[in-house]
Amino acid sequence: MKKAVVLLSGGLDSTTVLAIARSRSFSCYCLSFHYGQKQNIELERAAHIATVMRAEQHLVLRLDLGKIGGSALTAAIEVPKDRKDEEISQGIPVTYVPARNIIFLSHAIAWAEVIGAADIFLGINAVDYSGYPDCRPEFLHAFRQMANLGTKAGSTGNAFQFHAPLIELSKKEIIEVGTKLGVDYSLTHSCYDPVQGLACGHCDACILRLKGFAEAGLEDPVQYASKMDKKTKRYRES
Fold first, then answer.
1. How far does Cα 7 stand from its chain's mean position?
2. Which of 76, 157, 60, 146 is nearest to 111 (CA)?
3. Is the residue at 194 inside a domain?
4. In this predicted structure, which of 89-93, 97-101, 134-138, 188-192 has the lowest mean pLDDT?
5. CA 192/CA 96 separation, integer angstroms
6. What is the Cα–Cα distance from 176 to 170, expressed in whole angstroms?
7. Positive or negative CA dihedral for 103, 104, 108, 111?
8. Domain total for the chain?
C-alpha cells in the first residue's frame, strides 16, 4: 500500500477525505495541528477518528498561531453568527487564519519526505466555503509547484501529488460521498464557536453543515446547543 499524509482536523470534510484515501487503498498517516485554536475539541475528535478509521499513525504538531492572532479562531475576535448564504459567500471572513493552509501543507510535505510518502490529501473546498483564499484550486496548483521545487523529494524525481477530492463538491455532495463510504459523522466537529462542547448552530461552519445535511435529506447526527427549526425558521435549544 502506498503511504499518504492526510490532513485531519476532526471536521466533516477532512474525515470524508480520510475515508476517500482509505477507499483508494492508501496507508494513511494523519496530521493534525494544535495551533492555538479556540475550538480545540476538534483535536479530540481527530484522535478518535484516526483510531476508528485505522490510520497508521496520527501525529499532532503544536504551533502557536495564537501569538500571531488576526483570526476569530485564535484571537479575541467575535465569531460571526447567523449570516445569510450571500453574506457567507462574499469576502474573506474574520475566521480566516493567516496563511494556515500554507503552514499546514509545509509541515505535511516535511513529514511526507521523512516517511517516504508522495501523496498528500486535504479537505479544501471552493464551493460551499467562507471565502478562504487558501481553499482555491489555483492556490493548490501553485503550492504543488513550490513544494516540488523546494524539497529533496521533488528535486530527485519523487514529485508530490496533492489530492483535494472535495474541492469542487457542494457540502451536500460531500456528505453523500462520505455516507456511501460509511463515514460516521457523529464523530466529527465543525463548529467555530462550540458551547460547552456542543456545536453552536449559528456560525458559518454550522450553517453550511446543517444546510448540507438538509439538502442531502439526512439528519446531522451531532448535537447542537441550538439550531434552526425547519418549520418555524426560529432557533430552538437542544
1. 8
2. 60
3. no
4. 89-93
5. 11
6. 10
7. positive
8. 1
Structural domain contains residue 207: no
CATH of the domain at 96: 3.40.50.620
Instruction: Kindly report, residue by residue over 159-172, the tens digit of the pLDDT.
Output: 999 999 999 999 99
Distance (Å, whole) CA 7 – CA 17: 9
User: Does some domain include residue 190?
Assistant: no
The stretch 25-52 carries a mean pLDDT of: 96
What is the per-residue DSSP string for the chain? -EEEEEE--SSHHHHHHHHHHHHTTEEEEEEEEE-S-S-THHHHHHHHHHHHTT-SEEEEEE--GGGT--STTTSS-PPPBS--HHHHTSS--TTPPTTHHHHHHHHHHHHHHHHT--EEE----SSSS---GGGSHHHHHHHHHHHHHSSHHHHTT---EEE-TTTT--HHHHHHHHHHTT--GGG----SS-BTTBB-S-BHHHHHHHHHHHHTT----S-BSEEE-TTT-SEEE-
Which among 163, 205, 164 has a CA at the least distance from the CA of 11? Answer: 205
| The amino acid at 112 | A
Q: Find the domain containing 78 and state its range.
A: 2-185
What's the length of the chain?
Answer: 238
Read off the pLDDT band of 204 (50, 70, 90): very high
Domain for residue 97, yes or no?
A: yes
Q: Are 6 and 174 in contact (CB under 8 A)?
A: no
**7 and 121 in contact (C-beta within 8 Å)?**
yes
